UniProtKB/TrEMBL annotation:
The lineage of its organism: Bacteria, Bacillati, Actinomycetota, Actinomycetes, Propionibacteriales. This is NADPH-dependent F420 reductase. GO terms for biological process: copper ion import; NADPH regeneration. PANTHER family: DUDULIN-RELATED, F420-DEPENDENT NADP REDUCTASE. GO terms for molecular function: coenzyme F420 binding; cupric reductase (NADH) activity; ferric-chelate reductase (NADPH) activity; NADP binding; oxidoreductase activity, acting on NAD(P)H.
Length: 220
């Protein structure tokens, strides 16, 4: 699959992370469909992105966005993750589904990883979507950098996890379309927990150093 010739759907596309990823994909010339619980909110956000990027961006309710996408990103809050995927399982059958969700909690000491019965959000997605090709990616990318129009290059590696080589290759290629970004295969789905949990460490780094830290893998 070549990302530039396919429609990219972003479920939860009106939140900071989803909107930021959609912005970068639209700038790269991809056809993007923003999904949201509210079609009206998605359409408004899509119109704003199309205006600032000059790209092809549409908005729709999550179910309609999922149906339209060849490659579907899940960028929704953790507390609505399982419910949404269970509802959309029939629509997502046969598609590459990229889970970008980090199960995190927050208290006075900062961010921390939440336990997930399946092992990780990505593994939960795989369990709920047995007929989809589930990949984990884009967990550690700063929403602030993605949304900042002054940032021309998002200099970070995207750790891509999955058991389907063709699907992980497609998601690595998707990451590569964003200037500065590089998709790196990081293991099978069973390794997704530590990648999702790493976001808690990055949040701590950002708070200490007033930064928007990402990940770079050396010698690859």
């Amino acid at each position: 699959m070549t990302p530039t010739t396919h429609t990219i759907a972003v479920l939860g596309g009106t939140g900071p992370q989803g909107r930021g990823l959609a912005r970068r994909f639209a700038q790269a010339g991809l056809h993007v469909v923003l999904g949201s619980r509210s079609a009206e909110r998605a359409e408004k956000a899509a119109a704003e992105l199309a205006d600032v990027t000059g790209g092809h961006v549409e908005g729709a309710a999550n179910a309609d966005a999922a149906a339209a996408g060849d490659l579907v990103l899940v960028v929704v809050p953790w507390d609505g993750h399982a419910e949404l995927l269970a509802e959309l399982a029939p629509v997502l059958a046969g598609k590459i589904v990229v889970d970008c969700v980090n199960p995190l909690g927050f208290d006075k000491q900062g961010a921390y990883a939440l336990p997930v019965p399946e092992g990780s959000a990505t593994q939960q997605a795989a369990a709920l979507l047995p007929d989809s090709r589930v990949v984990g990616a884009f967990h550690n990318v700063s929403a602030v950098l993605l949304e900042d129009p002054e940032v021309a290059s998002v200099d970070t590696d995207v750790l891509v996890l999955g058991d389907d080589r063709e699907a992980t290759d497609a998601v690595q290629a998707l990451a590569d379309v964003v200037p500065g970004m590089r998709g790196i295969y990081a293991g099978r789905l069973r390794n997704a927990h530590q990648v999702e949990a790493l976001t808690a460490n990055l949040i701590s780094i950002n708070r200490r150093y007033t930064a928007h830290a990402g990940v770079r893998v050396t010698d690859v």
